[in-house]
Write a structure and sequence with these properties.
With 464 residues, the protein is mostly helical. Among the domains are: 187 residues, Ncd80 complex, Nuf2 subunit (Actin-binding Protein, T-fimbrin, domain 1, Orthogonal Bundle); 134 residues, Orthogonal Bundle (Helix Hairpins). Helices cover 88% and strands 0% of the residues. The longest helix has 202 residues.
């Protein structure tokens, strides 16, 4: 298979799932896997890793996966079916069978999530290095993909949590302000009638005060006129009394004088009596006017006292009613301003939250689109990888068949070698026996030659 035009895809799929990196990623989960396991995985190690993957991916516990191992008991119930009875010697087999079936179903779901083909029960309990490596690689890729998604949305989730906290704080502030507002509203409703009555009384008192001021000003002017007239009357009375005194003195002087002409005296007397009557009439008029002025003055003094009392009552009303009313109105205005400010802040925070939610929605849509594209890309890559794996598997099978053929040839060669080795061994043994015979013959020949030489030597010696 020629994959030179797609080296990046293959490298991206398999570059980060080497056995060393798988060991490092599993160590981060607290799982220590031996390197020998990848070459010769045992059923216990494979099942343990499958159980860990089920707990991590589905959030299950050991009690969910194999409750019979955790609680170590199965309740025995009497069967209602005649002839069907579960005996105690079958409980262990039943417990293992149910647990293995449940575990196999979890493993099938796990393979579906990890994008692996379905796994058979025989393959689950009899793992091969190929299936074990394929499963661990897919599990590590899933963990990295999930961690990448978590890091991708971590900032957005943090912002969303911050916005939620701000919203909760704002809602708490709104509840407090609404409580204060309702309290002031309740107080306003309670004092509304008193306030309306106080306002009406104030308006009535203001009208009375204006009328009293007008009357007071009129009477003040009239009092000034009366005071001036009293002064003039006093002056006139003084003048009349002075004239009467003068007349009395004149009368006394005249009475002492000698009367020469009675008619003149009678005329003077009549004139004086007429003048006296005129002065008496004028004095009576002035006295009557004085009494009237005194009555008017007493009435003015009563008005003055009434105005002073009215002023005191208005001052007391101002201190007791109007000033707290103004303060309450000012406090109400302050609270109203504060409410408007809080409403603006709430509106701003809501707009900010809506913008954040819109940004979150856009970011989520963007992330979903990227995720969809990434899933499509990953699916395409996975298809290519599966295709590559299938073709590689075919090549491996071809290589395995070739290896089998070579192994057969090697076996034939070994058999031929063994046969030849046996032949050579037999030949060697035969040669060794022949060599021994030759050696024995040579030794015998040497011994014979020695004997012959000795005899020859002896013969020569005897001849000499």
């Amino acid at each position: 298979m020629d994959l030179t035009h797609e080296p990046q895809i293959i490298d991206e799929l398999f570059r980060k799932v080497r056995s060393e990196e798988i060991l490092e990623d599993l160590k981060e989960l607290g799982v220590d896997v031996r390197e020998q396991t990848f070459k010769n995985p045992s059923p216990e190690e494979a099942l343990g890793l499958y159980g860990l993957a089920i707990q991590v991916v589905f959030g299950k516990t050991r009690a969910d996966i194999r409750p019979e191992d955790v609680y170590s008991q199965i309740h025995v119930y009497s069967s209602a079916v005649e002839g069907l009875e579960i005996k105690s010697e079958n409980l262990e087999f039943l417990r293992r069978g149910i647990g293995n079936l449940r575990f196999w179903r979890y493993c099938q779901r796990l393979h579906d999530v990890l994008g692996l083909p379905e796994i058979e029960r025989y393959e689950l309990f009899n793992p091969t290095p190929e299936s074990f490596n394929r499963f661990t690689s897919a599990f590590v890729v899933y963990l990295r993909f999930r961690e990448a998604l978590k890091n991708l949305f971590e900032d957005t989730v943090t912002r969303l949590n911050f916005c939620a906290e701000q919203e909760a704080q704002l809602e708490e502030n709104i509840r407090q302000v609404e409580g204060e507002y309702n309290n002031f509203k309740r107080l306003k409703d309670e004092y509304a009638l008193d306030l309306e009555t106080s306002v009406n009384d104030r308006e009535h008192l203001e009208q009375l005060l204006l009328q009293a001021k007008s009357v007071f000003n009129e009477h003040k002017e009239e009092k000034a006129k009366i005071d001036a007239e009293i002064e003039r009357t006093k002056i006139a009375i003084n003048d009349v009394q002075l004239n009467r005194t003068k007349v009395r003195h004149i009368n006394e002087n005249l009475s002492e004088q000698i009367v020469d002409d009675p008619e003149v005296i009678y005329n003077q007397k009549n004139e004086l009596e007429a003048h006296k009557a005129t002065q008496t009439t004028t004095l009576k008029c002035l006295i009557e006017r004085l009494e009237a002025v005194k009555q008017r003055l007493s009435r003015l003094e009563g008005c003055h006292d009434f105005l002073i009392a009215l002023k005191e009552k208005l001052t007391q009303h101002l201190e007791e009613v109007l000033r707290p009313l103004v303060e309450n109105v000012s406090a109400a205005k302050t609270i109203k301003t504060r409410n408007e400010t809080l409403r603006e802040q709430i509106k701003y925070q809501k707009n900010k939250r809506e913008d954040a939610q819109k940004s979150l929605v856009l970011a989520r849509q963007d992330h979903e689109e990227k995720l969809r594209l990434a899933e499509q890309n990953a699916e395409n890559k996975l298809k290519l990888a599966r295709k590559f794996a299938d073709e590689t598997h075919e090549q491996v099978q071809q290589i395995q068949r070739h290896i089998s053929q070579e192994n057969k040839k090697i076996e034939l060669i070994q058999q031929e070698y063994t046969r030849r080795e046996d032949t050579m061994t037999n030949t060697y043994r035969t040669l060794q026996g022949n060599l021994k015979k030759v050696s024995d013959a040579a030794k015998a020949y040497s011994q014979s030659m020695d004997d012959i030489m000795k005899e020859l030597h002896n013969t020569v010696a005897e001849t000499k």
